[in-house]
Specification:
Largest sheet of chain B: 7 strands, mixed
Number of helices of chain B: 0
Largest sheet of chain A: 6 strands, mixed
Largest interface: A-B, 24 and 32 residues
Distance between the termini of chain A: 41 Å
Structural class of chain A: mainly beta
Distance between the termini of chain B: 35 Å
Number of helices of chain A: 0
Order of helices and strands of chain B: EEEEEEEEEEE
Oligomer: heterodimer
Shape of chain A: globular
Order of helices and strands of chain A: EEEEEEEEEEE
Number of strands of chain B: 11
Helix content of chain A: under 10%
Shape of chain B: globular
Helix content of chain B: under 10%
Strand content of chain B: over 45%
Chain lengths: ~110, ~120
Amino acid sequence: AQSVTQLGSHVSVSEGALVLLRCNYSSSVPPYLFWYVQYPNQGLQLLLKYTSAATLVKGINGFEAEFKKSETSFHLTKPSAHMSDAAEYFCAVSSNTGKLIFGQGTTLQVKP
Amino acid sequence: DGGITQSPKYLFRKEGQNVTLSCEQNLNHDAMYWYRQDPGQGLRLIYYSQIVNDFQKGDIAEGYSVSREKKESFPLTVTSAQKNPTAFYLCASSPPVAGSGQETQYFGPGTRLLVL
């Protein structure tokens, strides 16, 4: 069975500070991993995805994530937070049938 | 413009009433999905369909029904059997990379269902 754990339901950073959102996964097969962002009362938008081509994945809006098999992690980072990054972020793992299993989400607050 | 549309944006349900949420996509995607989102619980899969006239139950299908008569449409009915329907409902679709798991799911803007 596959599962995703996002550590920290709320993360608060100052504008310009490093953003680090944590995601650990469990999978019996090589995983495909995704990060999505959701702004209030909107749908989800893909930030980036890992499909085994490269362990460091760059996404939109300056975000990137590194796949670490030994740590079963896929943490999301951004060097410098902007106010517009305030949103909810979801990590997800995909089964080979295409179904996504989502983590519980992390709300990012950016303080001026 | 290609995309996924969901309607209505807000929907109110009375006791004992069935309501239907619309999801339409013009991306020519084969697979479509319905998720329910509750605060602090992430997204949970209700139903999914990988091809027209076929669909499978997800993790929380009880109290819901779907149909997939057309490739571009995947309506979700919340029946009176669903005792706690208040939630944000999201529809998604993905292109045909069958069996690989690499497919990106694209999401609609969501429908918020409230009980009167």
